[in-house]
Write a structure and sequence with these properties.
By secondary structure, the protein is an all-alpha fold. Helix content is 81%, strand content 0%. The chain has eight helices and no strands. It has helices spanning 7-10, 13-23, 27-48, 55-78, 80-99, 107-125, 130-147, 151-170. Helix 2 runs parallel beside helix 8 and helix 4 (55-78) packs parallel to helix 6 (107-125).
């Protein structure tokens, strides 16, 4: 039986609430961000509610959010042509991330690599917002430190870190 009212399940709502609060006035780009965070919310909540077959939706939601944010960083800094090339790179990168499962690489390593590239790109193209980006990194590091001991706190903190990242790249 699914456990929809547990701490680990309910804290997933933070992803969607942060996205709505941060991006509701940002037009189509913001609406897609909200949709990606909604996908992460539903997939992760389902997994933490005790639906083991939803694990791939939890993991895929993380990749979708990270890859979309990376595309937004590139697009806002470079325009549509570079975004088109980046979309091709995104497809290849996404396929590679999914294929890495066959290579027995831990999910944490894949997510760490994805967000490492995302933050490096954000700092490179949006250096004027370095304080917001640095705050996002700091919150994400704290989230990683508490993840093992309180997974619900991980959800809350990583949602806040993603919201700060959104502000840093769209300001």
């Amino acid at each position: 039986m699914a456990k929809w009212l547990t701490w680990d399940t309910q804290t997933n709502w933070a992803y969607l609430l942060v996205a709505i609060f941060m991006a509701h006035n940002d037009g189509p780009t913001g609406y897609v961000f909200i949709a990606t965070m909604a996908f992460l919310t539903v997939g992760s909540a389902g997994y933490h509610a005790g639906l083991p077959k939803w694990n791939h939706l939890d993991v895929m939601g993380t990749y979708v959010v990270g890859l979309y944010l990376w595309l937004v960083v590139i697009h806002l800094a470079s325009g549509w042509w570079v975004s088109l090339v980046s979309a091709a790179g995104l497809a290849v990168g996404g396929a590679y991330l999914l294929r890495m499962k066959q290579l027995d690489v831990r999910m944490e390593v894949k997510v760490g690599a994805l967000f490492g590239v995302l933050y490096a790109t954000a700092f490179m193209f949006h250096s004027a917002e370095w304080r917001m980006l640095l705050a996002s990194v700091a919150v994400m590091v704290v989230a990683l430190l508490v993840r093992k001991y309180n997974h619900g706190a991980w959800h809350l903190l990583s949602a806040a870190g993603l919201g700060l990242l959104w502000i840093g790249v769209t300001a």
